[in-house]
Specification:
Layout: E1 6-13, E2 17-24, E3 27-33, H1 51-59, E4 73-77, E5 93-98, H2 101-110, H3 113-116, E6 120-125, H4 128-137, E7 144-149, H5 164-173, E8 174-183, H6 192-199, E9 205-211, E10 223-229, H7 232-236, H8 238-243, E11 244-245, E12 289-291, H9 298-314, E13 321-326, H10 341-351, E14 363-368, E15 373-378, H11 384-403, H12 407-438
Parallel strand pairs: 4-5, 4-7, 5-6, 7-8, 12-13, 13-14
Antiparallel strand pairs: 1-2, 2-3, 8-10, 9-10, 9-11, 14-15
Helix pairs in contact: 4-5, 9-12, 11-12
Length: 440
C-alpha cells in the first residue's frame, strides 16, 4: 500500500519447528514460533531481558514484596505483529498506535500475539503523534505506566516522533514515575544523542539497555532500548544496573531536535564510532552463562549474570567467570573423545569462543550432563591453593545440588562461592602490589 510492501515469510527454526515473520523491506516487524508451546514467547527485540521487557516487569512489581503483581497500562507506538503483548498479563491494558492498517490486518490474520494475551488490547489506526495529541485535546490522557516508542529500526526515520514537541505529548500521557522506552536498534543511525536531548529539559534520567542476541535458543535479536524516567527506584534496581550501559554521563553528546530543525546527517553512524562498553564487548555479548543443557532457571540465570558482571567490573575487566553446561562430551576435531575432561574443557573454551588462552585470570565452571562430569577450569595465574579451594566448592556446593536434582540451585551456590574466591584472590594481588610499591 502507500506505506510500502510487507513480506510474510515462513521458515524452519533449527530447534523449535516453524517460524513466521513479517518484514517491511529489510526491517523485521516481528516473528512468532508456530509450535503451540512457544506461541507466546516474546521474540525479536522484545525478550524478557530487553529494555522494554525489563521496563514492563519493573512497572508491574508488587507494592509489597509478597503482594500480587500490579496491573499496568502500556502504550506502544508501532504495532509490528503485536509481540509486546506476549509480555502482558491479565488485568493489564495495552494500547497500540499504528499508522499502517495493513500491519494490523497481518498481525490479526497471520499472528496470534494479540489474540492470545489475557490483557485488554486496543489498536488505534493513524499517525501516533496526531492520535495522541487528539486524545489530549479531548482531555483523555492515557496515564501509561510504560510507553514504548518503536518506529526507528528501519532506514526511514519518522523525525516528528523524536522532537521536543513530540516529547511533551508523550510525557502528558505518562504517569509521573512512568517509563518512556525508545527502541533505537539500527545499523545506520544512532539516535542515542537525540534521546538524551529529549530527556535533558525535563530532568529525566536516561539508561541505555543493550541485550544480546539469543536467536537460536529464545528467538530474540540483539536490541538497544533507551529508557527515560524520573523513578530512582528503576535506575537503582539490581537487574536494571546489570543490563544498562553507563553512557549517559555528564559529558555524553546530546542533540536537541525540534519540529523546526532535525538532521539525520548528525546521527548517521560511522565505522568505529560509538562508546565501547567492556562488558558488552566481551565473549558471548556480556552473558557469561552458556546453558546448552537447560540446567539453569531464568531467575537463577539473571542472578548469576548479576554476580558475573559485578565481579568483571570490580576487577577492571579481569577475572571473567564463565558457566557452561552441555549435554555431552565435546569431541576432538578428528571426531575422537578427549583423553581427559581437562582437555574437554580446553576444547569447549575454544569451540564456544570463550576467553583467550592468554586470559589466565579466568574461571570456567563446566558441567557435562551425559558424561556426569563437572569441574572448575582455572587460568594459569591461579595458585595451587585456589585450585584446591575450587575442588572444595565443587564438592560442597555444586555436587549436593546435582545429587538432590536441584542443578540450578547448585550452580548458583557454586558461582557465589567462586565469586568470593575470586574476590579474595583479587584483594591478595592488590595488597601484594601495594607492598611492592612500598618496597616491602
Amino acid at each position: 500500500n502507500f506505506y510500502g510492501v510487507l513480506h510474510l515469510r515462513q521458515f524452519p527454526h533449527p530447534l523449535y519447528g516453524e517460524v513466521r515473520s513479517l518484514n517491511h523491506g529489510l526491517t523485521v516487524h516481528g516473528r512468532q514460533f508456530l509450535d503451540i508451546e512457544r506461541l507466546r514467547w516474546p521474540t525479536t527485540y522484545y525478550g524478557e531481558d530487553s529494555g522494554i521487557g525489563l521496563a514492563m516487569e519493573f512497572a508491574a512489581k508488587p507494592v509489597q514484596p509478597d503482594g500480587p503483581r500490579r496491573p499496568i497500562r502500556v502504550g506502544g507506538v508501532g504495532l509490528g505483529v503485536g509481540t509486546i503483548a506476549a509480555l502482558t498479563h491479565r488485568d493489564d491494558y495495552l494500547r497500540f498506535y499504528e499508522i499502517n492498517p495493513q500491519v494490523l490486518d497481518y498481525a490479526n490474520r497471520h499472528f496470534s500475539f494479540l489474540a492470545d494475551t489475557p490483557a485488554e488490547v486496543e489498536v488505534i489506526i493513524g499517525d501516533a503523534r496526531v492520535m495522541m495529541e487528539g486524545e489530549l485535546a479531548a482531555d483523555k490522557p492515557q496515564q501509561f505506566d510504560v510507553l514504548a516508542i518503536d518506529a526507528f529500526n528501519s532506514d526511514s526515520i519518522p523525525l516528528h516522533l523524536v522532537t521536543q514537541e513530540a516529547m511533551a505529548i508523550y510525557l502528558k500521557h505518562l504517569k509521573p514515575d512512568g517509563l518512556l522506552a525508545f527502541h533505537i536498534s539500527n545499523k545506520y543511525i544512532d539516535l542515542s544523542p537525540v534521546i538524551r536531548g529529549l530527556a535533558k529539559p525535563h530532568g529525566l534520567q536516561v539508561l541505555r539497555i543493550a541485550s544480546p542476541s539469543e536467536e537460536e535458543r529464545l528467538g530474540t535479536n540483539a536490541a538497544v532500548w533507551m529508557v527515560l524516567t524520573r523513578d530512582d527506584a528503576f535506575v537503582k534496581d539490581d537487574r536494571i544496573q546489570l543490563m544498562a550501559d553507563p553512557i549517559a554521563g555528564a559529558n555524553a553528546v546530546t542533540l536537541n531536535w525540534t519540529d523546526d530543525f532535525a538532521s539525520l546527517w548528525s546521527v548517521i553512524t560511522r565505522s568505529g564510532s560509538g562508546t565501547v562498553n567492556k562488558w558488552s564487548m566481551t565473549p558471548n555479548g556480556g552473558k557469561f552463562i552458556i546453558d546448552r543443557a537447560d540446567m539453569v532457571t531464568r531467575a537463577d540465570e539473571r542472578t548469576i549474570s548479576y554476580i558475573q558482571k559485578h565481579l568483571f567490573d570490580d576487577a577492571s575487566a579481569n577475572f571473567p567467570l564463565f558457566v557452561v553446561t552441555v549435554k555431552g562430551v565435546t569431541l576432538n576435531p578428528d571426531g575422537s573423545k578427549p583423553e581427559s575432561f581437562e582437555k574437554q574443557a580446553m576444547l569447549m573454551q575454544r569451540n564456544l569462543g570463550l576467553f583467550n588462552p592468554k586470559d589466565d585470570n579466568a574461571i570456567m565452571l563446566i558441567i557435562s550432563v551425559d558424561d556426569r562430569q563437572f569441574m572448575v577450569h582455572l587460568g594459569s595465574a591461579w595458585q595451587g591453593q585456589s585450585r584446591q579451594e575450587s575442588d572444595r566448592i565443587i564438592n560442597e556446593h555444586l555436587l549436593p545440588g546435582l545429587q538432590k536434582n536441584k542443578p540450578s540451585q547448585g550452580i548458583l551456590n557454586a558461582v557465589n562461592a567462586l565469586d568470593q574466591m575470586a574476590r579474595r584472590e583479587l584483594a591478595r594481588r592488590l595488597e601484594n602490589e601495594k607492598k611492592a610499591e612500598r618496597g616491602e
